[in-house]
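Translate sequence into structure tokens.
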Amino acid sequence: MPSTAAPTRRTATSRSSSSGAAAHSGRVDPAPVETTSIAPTILALLGLNPNELSAVRTEHTRTLHVAPAIH
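Result follows.
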């Protein structure tokens, strides 16, 4: 099944909401991305190794180039 391309949001800054969670503001990059890159990117941003996912290793999936949240 082919992946769907979607624009990515690249984070430039963050600000705190009333809940204390970081709310990110940034810009939308019109470059298409593969939806298969979303999970490994989230893992990388959480400090986890995306290559622990067998699909990432098998399909040689790359992470998206996004800036981590600034705390």
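Note: The first strand starts at residue 5 and ends at 16.
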